[in-house]
Amino acid sequence: MADDPHFETRAIHVGQDADEATGSTIVPIYQTATFTQDAIGTNRGYEYSRISNPTRDALEAALASLEGGRFGLAYGSGMAAIHGVMQLLSAGDHVVVCDDLYGGSYRLFTKVMTGFGVRFSFVDATVLAEIESAIDSETKMLWIESPTNPMLRMIDITACAEIARRKGLTLVVDNTFASPYLQNPLELGAHVVAHSTTKYIGGHSDVIGGALVVDDEEIATRLRFTRNASGGVPGPWDAWLTLRGVRTLALRMRQHEVNAKQVAEFLRERPEVQRVHYPGFADHPGHELAKRQMRGFGGMVTVDLVGGEPAAKAFAEGTRYFSLGESLGGVESLIGYPWTMSHGAFAPEVKRSKGITEATVRLSVGIEHADDLCADLEQALGRAASAR
Ligand SMILES: *Cc1c(COP(=O)(O)O)cnc(C)c1O
Which atom of ligand 1 is nearest to the CA of 149? Predict the structure, then answer.
């Protein structure tokens, strides 16, 4: 199908024609490891499910279309997808990475990939000059996330693409926080888009998955080869669940957005809250850039509480509808304490340099009724006030 139809239509139809064998309207779960061959050397397009599987193919076609790239690759987790990108590199190569980075990516880069001779420099990528000065003669890749986690800073993808083009680097954007509904890095000049489909794309916190989307055929061929060689594929059932999430991504993102805005505005007026980090506010440092490179401000809101650690912990532990937990992007609201949870692996001074303190709490605003969410936060703020 051509990419002319709108996002919502592509999410439901691309890769999802009725099944040829049976007419099944919904893409079947081809729960099989292998495919019976008609004769030696003759098959019907499938041989073995690590190489390819029809259910996974459907998911990959849909995701490629939503990101505006020609090639999609699904992986068994976001980290498997990110490791897939790392396999484009060789010993001696150098990567410049934004320092506001998903903790799992930081761990893979610094604790695993360095053992294979790949070097990494972490820079504040909101300052383009820092990126430029970190590039050396071995640099092959520029890796960014925008919006960043948990402070929701914006990195200029178009400007990074310009640096990458000038220096001959591969620009990779982890687009998990925005989702393809709000931001399409390939259109801004990135070469590879990475996703943890566990988050907004799957959307129901019931399946782990990852994906890469690229437009360059040579990169796609190399990624497919290394994925088959190393084996980080999702099973058909997980691919099917993720594809079911894809169909409602647009609807969910619109409601996440409406709810996050109401929650951010509610929290900004509260005396128990010192500061609300939300890119939809005109005084957020990335607001203008977010308006340029995104189609909305997303469903994440981060707050600093008055009263430091005891207040923040009482708040994070005191909600009823916001479940205390890792992850984000599900229909249900989640609340997290970055200091010891998502960013527990970073040194205190590193956290502080990013603006994360013991008073910081991160909210993934779900699609429950926003009035109920605000009422829940209000009672939890009462607990925060009495804890300080
Ligand atoms: C969760 C997450 C990942 C890792 O994905 P998994 O599916 O948990 O392996 C990578 N990047 C970002 C931004 C994430 O939020």
Answer: 13
